[in-house]
């Protein structure tokens, strides 16, 4: 149990603040809301590519995974779900836009989505999503590269991605561009 969280200013403090064994929804949320970090605190985990945003693992346990995502200007995720897990996103640099969707109808791998909500998150803000809230797409809508810290609890190995125009659902395997500062074979 973490008492009296003030401000979390380093990756080491962040990892030490999260229970590695059991997800505690309130505690995890409090920890994510206590982060005050920027690009300088995350350097070993920051990699940008022109072609795609990168997912860089800080720490993974049976209860959670903690990932740094690096977004070049205009880069965006597909519309996706979160496999029933909780996801918090802290904006460490830049500005991110989230558009939420709900599934109006779904049959096999076909679906109809409806846009429900649109929010801009600035540096220092924390977003939260769960499948009960909806699906979403995340985009770097700012004028500079962006960095986000994501906490997934429990870890997610696959998610569904949704093609809005074709109305199709596909399963996607999630990989890391780097793990604990080292590039992986996916990079
Ligand atoms: Fe997400």
Description:
This protein is mostly beta strands and 187 residues long. The chain has one domain (45-175): Jelly Rolls (Sandwich). The chain is built from 2 helices and 13 strands. It has helices spanning 11-17, 25-33, and strands at 54-60, 65-71, 79-80, 86-93, 96-107, 110-121, 126-129, 135-140, 146-153, 158-163, 168-173, 178-179, 182-183. The strands form 3 sheets. A 7-stranded mixed beta sheet has the order 7-4-9-2-1-12-13, covered by helices on one side. A 3-stranded antiparallel beta sheet has the order 3-10-11, with no helix packed on it. Strands 6-5-8 form a 3-stranded antiparallel beta sheet, with no helix packed on it. The chain is globular, with a radius of gyration of 16 Å. It starts with 10 loop residues before the first helix and ends with a strand. The chain binds fe (ii) ion.
CATH class: Mainly Beta
Structural class category: mainly beta
CATH architecture: Sandwich
> How many runs of DSSP E, i.e. beta strands?
13
Distance between the termini: 36 Å
Overall, the morphology is globular
Instruction: Domain count, please report it.
Output: 1
The neighbouring-strand order within the major sheet is 7-4-9-2-1-12-13
| CATH fold descriptor | Jelly Rolls
Q: Largest sheet at a glance?
A: 7 strands, mixed
Q: CATH H level: which superfamily?
A: Jelly Rolls
């Amino acid at each position: 149990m973490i008492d009296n969280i003030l401000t979390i200013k380093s990756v080491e403090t962040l990892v030490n603040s999260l229970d590695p064994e059991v997800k505690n929804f309130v505690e995890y949320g409090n920890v994510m809301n206590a982060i005050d970090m920027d690009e300088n605190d995350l350097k070993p985990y920051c990699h940008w590519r022109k072609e795609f945003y990168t997912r860089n693992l800080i720490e993974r346990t049976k209860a959670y995974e903690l990932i740094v995502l690096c977004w070049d200007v205009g880069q965006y995720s597909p519309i996706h779900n979160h496999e029933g897990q909780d996801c918090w996103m802290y904006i460490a640099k830049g500005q991110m836009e989230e558009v939420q969707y709900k599934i109006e109808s779904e049959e096999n791998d076909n679906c109809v989505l409806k846009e429900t909500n649109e929010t801009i998150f600035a540096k220092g803000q924390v977003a939260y999503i769960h499948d009960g809230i909806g699906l979403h797409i995340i985009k770097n809508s700012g004028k500079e590269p962006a960095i986000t810290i994501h906490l997934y609890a429990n870890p997610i190995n696959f998610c569904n991605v949704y093609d809005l125009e074709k109305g199709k659902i596909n399963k996607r395997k999630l990989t890391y561009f780097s793990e604990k500062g080292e590039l992986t074979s996916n990079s």
